[in-house]
Amino acid sequence: MCAKISKGSNNVVAHLVAFLTIAIWGTTFVWTKLLLMQGLSPAHIFTLRFLLAYLLLLLFTTMTGKGKGPRFCWKDELVMAGLGLTGGSLYFLTENAAMLFTTATNTSLIVCACPLFAMLLISLCYPQTERFSRRELGGSLLAFVGMAVVVLNGHFVLHLSPLGDLLAFSACLCWAVYSLLMKRVGGHFPTLYITRKVFFYGLVTILPYYLFDPGFPSLQLLLRPSVWGNLLFLGCVASMICYLTWNWCMVKLGAVTATNWVYFNPITTILFAWLILGEQITPYFLIGTACILLGIYLCSKRK
Asked: Region 123-127: what's the mean pLDDT?
């Protein structure tokens, strides 16, 4: 790396921030669904929320001078581009496209398996420093089982769809690679700088998509309160703030420990649906939640 910064540690706060970040991400399905119903495509939603987040961070950096990066370095810039691709454009496109060809259950199960793949990928790339104990592996597997129990909710029927499942698996691998790249740069650059780069390269790498599917929502559509209000939440909170907090958590907790909180995503989604939509909480939800929490606890007990 061409730059280096120091880092502290406060695991309790970091775990709490990771939980809150995942909790917010678990609610985004509602706002995204409302925007889809208004006529925006998944690519439109991604582009607008990332553009809003990038402009706000750029404005903040310009006004305060915080989060400025080091001198330009091609090696570092390529890693940042990889973060924008795997944690931004390619991840969102493959995940949303998977929903068109397979069920939401299949997509959730495959995408939320990314902590297992992140653990495997990081251990392969860092065999000397990232050897995971049986307790940690068992904790991650237990959390995955708990997540599956929550998602399936007693209906253990999966509908195989090769194309849709492959797209969901691609999204899973994207987030695992994002975790690996964050481990590489997380301790070397300010979180604000990394996050701004993620948004920038996420926008750059989504541009080729519009060569195959041109067109953009009209200004009249974007000015609807139900549209710009949801976009503000997705851009300011779910993107700008949550990517900042998530990247910070990955530095404080480590890529694997932080990524295990992804297992909690279906729980927050179901809780939000219970509070807002009146959906019922089942015993499977409670059992799965207990397994996830115990699994995350075991994973966080590093040697």
From this structure: 79
